[in-house]
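Lab notebook page, bench 4
Experiment: in silico fold of construct C2
Operator: M.H.
Input chain length: 355 residues
Purpose: comparison with the prior construct
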Amino acid sequence: MTYSAKVKHLYVNRENFGLAYIPYYNIISKWRIVDVLFLIFLGLLDGFWFQKIEPYQRQFTVNDITLSHPFATIERVPAKTLAIILIVGPTLIMFAFSMILTPNKRKAYVFYVSFIGFAVGLATDLFITDVLKNWVGRQRPDFLARCVPDSSAEDNVLYFARDICTTDDHKTLMDGFRTTPSGHSSSSFCGFGYLTFWLFGQLMVRNINGGAWRSVVSILPVILASYVALSRTQDYRHHFVDVILGSLIGTLVGWWSYRRLFPPTNDPFCYVPYKLIEEKQKDNEYWLIRNRDFYDDDVLEPTITISPSRGEFSRTSNALETEALTTGHSSSEDFGSNYLNDLEAQLPRMAKTKF
């Protein structure tokens, strides 16, 4: 017997773009290998191109008071210092919390996914910021100090930098056209903002039983980001609008990068990467653990096994004893009897449930 079929439409699965058939696809997907490649690509593109091309050069007047601030030789938060704090700080914090709050079986994966999300967000933010800086080409508040206009320049006359600036420091002059948006602000709010979102999830700040300290600890990184952003106006490196725009961009990119990997903060499992939740869903266990800690099965014996098609289930004595004590029953037998009666009554509905 032979079969034939006419293909009416060719299409690619939008979830995996047809890559599900390649070897080790599940490993590639779980460990975010595509994100790693994306991170490398953005780093090379930004580092070897967008940070080296010259920005658009707008005209200016030599008596523009908004461009007449002094050039600060000592910055409150230098770029190199920010880079160290921004990379090392969140990395160590995510590592520490992952080691403390996650069972041994999941520690490495939770930290790895958290760091990948942080790195991808930061790289994306830097790329967007550098593109906009070169495209907008607005002058910094200290631009005239960088330019050193010729003494023959007249007030209220528009000039190009090439026509009136006398400085020999071409690199510093070109950097004077990269004020919008603020790179310090965008990167700070992206990196530290991502960390705040991450702490919101890991500490379950929206849990009604949680203390106020959880929210305070989670917000500390954003307070640091605010200080970094405002320091750029104090050093006269940026206008206030540059700082506001950079902060908004950083916050949005940080939120985007976090939400790609973790559920919203009001989800019962906001501290669990999506991929681990997906594994539970595939194993038909997700709905069973909605009212308890996601990682209980990693530290206790398996508690429930259900086969909807056959209507069978079992529950271990250790898990029964634990839950009996926490629910106020006198013994695991008493709790187990009540639990099994309730579950048996639900078996007809469970058997119809689509997993």
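Observations: Strands lie at 305-307, 312-314. Residues 146 and 169 are 8 Å apart (CA to CA).
Next step: discuss at group meeting.
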